[in-house]
Amino acid sequence: MEPTNQKFMERVVSQKALQMGNSFPCQICVVGFLCGICLTSLFLAVLTSVGTFGFTGISFSSLSMGISPWNSSSEIINVISSSDCNFKVKETERWVDSKPREPESDDDERVSFLTEAWGALLADRQPEENEFLQRFGLGKSSLPNAPHLENCKLSAQVNKRLDERSGAGKFPPWTTWKGSLNMYPATATDENARSLNHQPVSDGAHPPWIVGSDEENYPLTRKVQRDIWIHQHPINCNDPNIRFLVADWEVLPGFGIGAQLAGMAGLLAIAIKEKRVLVTGHYNRADHDGCKASSSSWSCYFFLETSRECRDRAFELTKNKEAWEKGIVKGKDNYKSKEIWTGKIPRVWGDPWSYLQPTTDINGSLIAVHHKMDRRWWRAQAVRYLMRFQTEYTCGLLNIARHAAFGKEAAKMVLASIDREWPKVITNKPKSDIEEFVWSNHRPWVPRPLLSMHVRMGDKACEMKVVEFEQYMGLAHRIRMRFPHLNNIWLSTEMQEVIDKTKSYPHWNFYYTNVKRQVGNASMAAYEASLGRKTSTNYPLVNFLMAVESDFFIGALGSTWCFLIDGMRNTGGKVMAGYLSVNKDRFW
């Protein structure tokens, strides 16, 4: 019973104490006593800070130890220091500490300044570039390297060397060099090694536009790409035995870029089966002021499918009636539509599609076999070849898109690694050889891992099952469950409602191009017409190429666009990244 009585007494004492504490006179005394202690402590703190150290260094425990008459009250002071009084001091400490945070605002200004400076260097902005740099007394060499931007002029020069035969029909230097390394000044010691570049291609050589090993791509990708290039680049285009297939790109109303690529893939298949060199003609989507130099051809965006010599020879033959009659040159009209769109796939390489890896996920299951495996494999090969090298113009479009999306993040990274006094203090260091030649092959920086998501809705409902954005995000969540560090989504869509719904997912970082988007269910043709030829071509190609470079991809296989993105990824070293689709191709 004693423990019970003891608890009872404790409750009684506690209740009495509570009653006393609730009385008004007692409350007045306690409040007065506490305020007095607080004021005294603050006064002593100020005096001490003036004499010895700064205000932010005050600790109540050190003050109580220095005043021996108050030692009996030290517990009370410590209690107050952990509540009311210390609250006031900490508020002041935050305010005092915020003064050194002025560099944070300076950092923000430096980030904005560097971002704007990089932006002034982008393509087609020469006047702004000069004006901006002169205004601040800077030169190009004064700016830190922009990790998210590519040197488009240099890349085009390098790719040109890798895509054409040298003198006497010698093979391009595929076997040894990558990036700008082939441009490293030759010395006497490496002349013998350099001469190997001009020998016939060896068995182990593969095209430089293919990333990854055979296991990371569709079966035989490296061999097929090499063989297509050799087929399309005969040593002597004037050889009377060389035959040609000359065809313009599709221009039918309602045909998007995806349909145009699919059609040209069919024509390339015919050309290979008939041992003809494919030569593409007019590309209607290049009919805008950005592509003036390319004469409205595919060469505005990507390297041509054959050499200039073969194109000149082919177009010369198109004016020769006898060449048509003898079948030396043929055109699209020589073939039925069915032959182009659903014709037989070249069997030069056997049937490598029969052992495609099952890496496509639909409704939680991998698709191992379907009825169009041969066409899926071939279109991937054909589109990869047609888009093997970007032109300087396309490279510039990607630079603009990356800078708009990732420019500030890149600036923060760079400024954290250089002198804090930049741009007041500038150290111009020349690039070392390893920076200029060896590291030149590295791709531009993007925040990784990056998930690309193409949401196709609108009038596509007449061709495939259309699902809501929430279902796409459900697949994104599945990927994140396996890769929890995934936070970034590159979103491509024509629908404004999809962009609006991204606000419901605050734990994801969404990036997307800044263009007018579709409201309602207008046709894609009407939507593209509202954007104009230039924008309606440029921004989809940027989204396409960003999807190809992303770590993961979510789309709809019922969309030809997504179908081709998947093919480019599967010939770009990303087979094992897999593909999550919200539906299956309507022809499977």
UniProtKB/TrEMBL annotation:
<keyword id="KW-1133">Transmembrane helix</keyword>
<keyword id="KW-0812">Transmembrane</keyword>
<protein>
    <recommendedName>
        <fullName>Alpha-(1,6)-fucosyltransferase</fullName>
    </recommendedName>
</protein>
<dbReference type="GO" id="GO:0006487">
    <property type="term" value="P:protein N-linked glycosylation"/>
</dbReference>
<feature type="transmembrane region" description="Helical">
    <location>
        <begin position="28"/>
        <end position="55"/>
    </location>
</feature>
<dbReference type="GO" id="GO:0046921">
    <property type="term" value="F:alpha-(1-&gt;6)-fucosyltransferase activity"/>
</dbReference>
<keyword id="KW-0472">Membrane</keyword>
